[in-house]
Amino acid sequence: LVPSNLCLPLPVLQAAHCQMIKDLSACLLGQSLRVDCRFENKTSNPLTYEFSLTKDNRKHIIQSTIGVPENLYRARANVTMHKNLVCLYLQSFTTSDEGVYMCELKATNDYTGNQIKNITVIKDKLEKCAGFSLLIQNTSWLLLLLLSLPLLQAVDFVSL
């Protein structure tokens, strides 16, 4: 037990923006909605996130490491994290899922508060997701090799 009259010195922590949301976009991937939350990360501290939907003036948490997701969305939603990208996938997206989607990020020990960005999602106005957007961002030597195979085969064919 610590005596109640004991003073413990607390270090003054310098506030600094550790991450900043750069872009929030949405697209249709088959029957699923994909919401991409791109951010700039200036720390290696763990990142927490929350995706929510505001419709009829009510906030519904879809997926989160900050709050508790609603049952209605929990079974249909999943989140993937890449280097500077957090993606929400909402399966069986319908017009009843339309509204203002919000991405909220917080880096552990970032004392400047959460970063928040909104996007209005209307099914008829959504574009189809580009198939290569994630692949281009995380291009690996294997992908480059696979993409260059037809070219190598063509060169081989010409030399015969």
From TrEMBL:
Keyword entries, A-Z: Cell membrane, Disulfide bond, Glycoprotein, GPI-anchor, Immunoglobulin domain, Lipoprotein, Membrane, Pyrrolidone carboxylic acid, Signal
Membrane disposition: Lipid-anchor; GPI-anchor
InterPro entries: Ig-like_dom, Ig-like_dom_sf, Ig-like_fold, Ig_V-set, THY1
A Gene Ontology term for the protein's cellular component: myelin sheath
Keyword set includes Metal-binding: no
Annotated GO MF terms: GTPase activator activity; integrin binding
Domain Ig-like: 11-120
Annotated localization: Cell membrane
The UniProt record lists the keyword Lipoprotein: yes
Pfam families assigned: V-set
GO biological process: cell adhesion; integrin-mediated signaling pathway; positive regulation of focal adhesion assembly; regulation of cell migration
Chief location category: membrane
Superkingdom of the source species: Eukaryota
Function summary: May play a role in cell-cell or cell-ligand interactions during synaptogenesis and other events in the brain.
PANTHER family: THY-1 MEMBRANE GLYCOPROTEIN
Protein name, entry field: Thy-1 membrane glycoprotein
Organism in which the protein naturally occurs: Centropus bengalensis
